[in-house]
Amino acid sequence: MECHVYYEGDDDPEKCTARRMEKFDEAILYRTMGQVPYGVVLNPHAERALSPADREAGLDTLVALDCSWESAEAASFRMNGVHRALPFLVAANPVNYGRPFRLTTVEALAGALCIFDELEHAESILEPFRWGETFLTLNEEPLRRYSECTDSSEVVAVQEEYLADEE
């Protein structure tokens, strides 16, 4: 599974996980939206949750948007592709540690890879980050459960259990 990132460049370059992924040949960055290939677009505003069925549909490209959370509006995700929202996951990065849904680009891509049953690839892209392994540890059970689902509705049902626990 290939990882691609539309890079807006509005975050601190020293903390940018997408740039570090590019440095380690784990992702391809695009600075023009029209260059981004068709694939599964990780979009928190999407109406459907990401599920293993999306991988089974033959889509082998993951696309993420790297931008500041302050500018991550629905309009930012105008890319071509199948738009899917990641289910409940908790951030391990130092800025948003423990906060649900506030993932870095690498955490989002790693979460998607785990849902697609590509744990080794997820470990590989997280390896350059001190907190990378922590992301997988914090989310081990939900990622395993999401990867065992057959479709988006099952993923949402599992997510609802975690959201109920958060309250």
From TrEMBL:
Domain of life of the native organism: Archaea
16S/18S rRNA aminocarboxypropyltransferase Tsr3 C-terminal domain segment(s): 40-163
GO molecular function: rRNA small subunit aminocarboxypropyltransferase activity; S-adenosyl-L-methionine binding
Gene Ontology, cellular component aspect: cytoplasm
Residues annotated for S-adenosyl-L-methionine binding in this entry: 17, 65, 86, 105
Domain (RNase L inhibitor RLI-like possible metal-binding) ranges: 3-27
Catalytic EC class: transferase
Main location: cytoplasm
Keywords attached to this entry: Cytoplasm, Ribosome biogenesis, rRNA processing, S-adenosyl-L-methionine, Transferase
Compartments where found: Cytoplasm
Pfam families found in the cross-reference section: Fer4_RLI (PF04068), Ribo_biogen_C (PF04034)
GO BP term (any one): enzyme-directed rRNA pseudouridine synthesis
EC id: 2.5.1.157
Reaction catalyzed: an N(1)-methylpseudouridine in rRNA + S-adenosyl-L-methionine = N(1)-methyl-N(3)-[(3S)-3-amino-3-carboxypropyl]pseudouridine in rRNA + S-methyl-5'-thioadenosine + H(+)
Known function: Aminocarboxypropyltransferase that catalyzes the aminocarboxypropyl transfer on pseudouridine corresponding to position 914 in M.jannaschii 16S rRNA. It constitutes the last step in biosynthesis of the hypermodified N1-methyl-N3-(3-amino-3-carboxypropyl) pseudouridine (m1acp3-Psi).
Family listed: Belongs to the TDD superfamily. TSR3 family.
Protein name from the UniProt record: 16S rRNA aminocarboxypropyltransferase
Organism per entry: Natrarchaeobius halalkaliphilus
Taxonomic lineage from the root: Archaea, Methanobacteriati, Methanobacteriota, Stenosarchaea group, Halobacteria
